[in-house]
Structures are given as structure tokens and as C-alpha cells.
Design brief:
Elements: E1 2-5, E2 8-14, H1 15-22, H2 26-34, E3 51-53, H3 54-65, H4 76-87
Helix pairs in contact: 1-2, 3-4
């Protein structure tokens, strides 16, 4: 699916595709978002499903690779991912 970010059309992927790429379940990614370990993606399909660009997936992959485990005490993960996404020009809700 294509989305427009900063006036540029780019390919976006579903949370299911991102989960497969990261070796996690979609439910895990949704949970991490709910508890604040991952920032909410502002990109949504017409049906309201979460969407992620290739750049967003790369940042998630790098951030998660730096950690052997992700826990509620991980204060750096949300900041690192948010900063990375904003560096791509994706305004992340606070």
C-alpha cells in the first residue's frame, strides 16, 4: 500500500508484515505500543490498521537488535525509535 509522507509517496506495510520481519507477533508490537515501549505510528490504512514504512521498519529492527530483551524498564527504546521516525520526517504523536 502507498502512503504520502512529507509529500512523497512511499510503500507502507501492515503490522503483520512488520511483525514477521522483526520475528515478533503483531500482538506483541501492539502491546509494546499500548504500554509505551514503542511510539504509536501515525500512519493508518483507510480501515484504521497500523502502517509502517520501510524506514520505520529499519529503525525498529536496529533498535530491537541492540537489546537481547525488551522490558518495561527500557527507557531508551521509545526515545530511540521516536527520534528515528522523526528523523524520517514522520511526526509521531506524543
Amino acid at each position: 500500500m502507498n502512503v504520502v509522507v512529507n509529500g512523497v509517496s512511499t510503500v507502507a506495510y501492515s503490522i503483520g508484515r512488520v511483525a514477521v520481519e522483526l520475528g515478533r507477533s503483531a500482538e506483541t508490537l501492539k502491546y509494546w505500543t499500548r504500554v509505551g515501549l514503542l511510539p504509536q505510528t501515525p500512519l493508518r490504512s483507510e480501515g484504521g490498521d497500523r502502517l509502517y514504512t520501510e524506514g520505520m521498519m529499519i529503525i525498529l529492527r536496529i533498535a530491537l537488535a541492540k537489546r537481547s530483551r525488551v522490558s518495561m524498564a527500557d527507557r531508551d527504546l521509545p526515545r530511540e525509535v521516536r527520534n528515528g521516525w522523526e528523523g524520517l520526517g514522520i511526526q509521531v504523536p506524543r
